[in-house]
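Our consortium's second objective concerns turning raw sequence data into structural hypotheses that experimental partners can test. To show how far this objective has progressed, the report includes one record in full. It was chosen at random from the queue rather than selected for favorable results. The single chain below, 89 residues long, was entered without modification.
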Amino acid sequence: MRKVEWDREKFRKMFPALYAEIGDRLIPTVIDHLEVCKSLEEAIEVIEYFEKKGEITREFASFLRNNPSLLNSLIRKRRRGEYESRGLL
């Protein structure tokens, strides 16, 4: 599966109602999801899910999996439900 990048203005013109509903908020990324993980095993599951859905590349998934110190610095960084305070969906 290939990730499709959209130009914000093109998206607004093609889907005005959806754009108005989303507004300027951002959709959480894999990093945002890793920050709420409670363990390294949970973080690996999140990475595998994002890779399977095509949201991240195989190379980026491999990079994250092969850097446990990086993952440990990300996990437990914030609690679930703190997306809204960052302007995320």
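The partners drew two points from this record. Residues 28-79 form one domain. The mean pLDDT is 81. Both points have been shared with the crystallography group to help prioritize constructs.
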